[in-house]
Write a structure and sequence with these properties.
The complex is a heterodimer of chains A (about 375) and B (about 150). Chain A has a single domain, classed as Cytochrome-c3 Hydrogenase, chain B. Chain A contains 16 helices and 8 strands. In chain A, about 50% of the residues are buried. Chain B folds into 2 domains: about 30 residues, no CATH class; about 90 residues, Alpha-Beta Plaits, CATH 3.30.70. Chain B is built from 5 helices and 5 strands, in the order ααβαββαββα. Classes of the chains: A alpha+beta (about 375), B alpha+beta (about 150).
Chain lengths: ~375, ~150
Amino acid sequence: MSETFLDSTELVLNMGPQHPSTHGVLRVIVKLDGEKVTGTECVIGYLHRGVEKIAENRTYAMFAPYVDRMDYVAAISNGLGYCLAIEKLISVEAPERAQVVRVILTELNRIASHLVWLGTHALDIGALTPLFYCMREREDILNIFEKYCGARLTTHAFRIGGLQYETYDGFEKECLEFCDKFMPRVDEYEELLTENRIWKERLIDVGILNAEDCKAYGVTGPMLRSAGVEWDIRKALPYSGYEKYDFEIPTRTNGDCYDRYIVRVQEMRQSARIVRQGVEMLAAGPIIGKVPKVLKPPMGEAYVSIEAPKGELGYYVVSDASTQPYRVRVRPPSFVNLQSLDKMARGSLVADLVAVIGTIDIVLGEVDR
Amino acid sequence: MKRFLRTILLVDLFEGLWLTLRTQHPRNITTEQYPAVIPKVGERYRGLPRLNTNPETGETLCISCDLCALACPETLIVVGWVRNPETKRKDLVNFTYDTSRCMFCGLCEDACPVDALELTQDYQMASFTREGQIFDREVLEEGTKPTKFKW
């Protein structure tokens, strides 16, 4: 028998777009040598809606609901980024009270986003239970959103120049109650997962991305922090008064899937801490700055980046002094972070590929826009 | 030694299992029984649109200013009006609101100067047809009449 007969040939396999662990409609073309991944290629665009193009045909205020539909798990962060970019363009700053409410809601949204990530990622790995617990806690956050702005997922909570809605009666109390309830719950998740041997076997030393690679790919957010780089836009380039809050940037050194899990869990704790401080800071005052009804920003451009739950979320807006933006470009964290998939997955097993996709925390609404 | 015993006795797995069992207690169940118990949504919930009328006279509050139609990002609102030759004011003839593409952003509600258009707490507005999603003035003023099914 010839030697070539015994050689295993390369197998090209489609993973997705309907695969449940691709967290949406991501299609990964996987090249396999037996059980080993020798290369991956992402095919994206199944959820493309042309959000950036829509922006060119809408007025500034009209486009705000659309940004919620990009990263729909963290809609409030998207809204904040967009509003900050337009506010920079028209040189208006949101009043003090509006900024504090924005920070509280954004941090609650960060917790909600991380909870969805934790639940679904655990589901991919094979732990079904954390999903139910995570959704239970997320429900409390969504109830706060619903009472505050009338919608649960695609909130449209902020307006350019501040807020549309005043906080409802008992907003502070509910936020504090949530924080009190949430802290022991995070311990519960950790009890379920952190020391669990299956969880550790599946995640430790899987999908390693070191700090140099992270910087080379432009990876941001918890993925970068898990590689040991202490980079958080909230600390590095504070916006919305984040410099007044006392919180830590959790970092780890290995940059594997397990470290990303630890970093995200720690971030949830820090977010709850920020919410608590924000509630203390809430003082009476106006909630919206002086913004003209018909918004015509002066000719120019503005770029604002914020720390979304998934990484650096940037909005670049160009104005041609008309009522509609000339161009809106979004720098989505998921899209950029997804590019590192090949680097992380190459040489690992197919089962690890699922863990690696899960750990990037992608939302396809944001990748495809 | 301690670590060895923990590994042999599967302590990590039983810890997690104990947590799962603890949550099974009826006190800790949080599931909502949706069709049987319809949950109450928040006061500011943005659901089915409503065109408010004056409760005493039954006349519409809408002044046909067209601001809601201009504020809508998807241009789903069409306001039909005629100029009344006697009062020189606009009289509302028809008002259609297409909820099939509505994202319930609330911009129309914010734009309304007289609080005529409002998004209500009603969220059960499914329809079997696309036409059923386009509400005219009558439905917007009186609310939808959902079919009641008997089990």
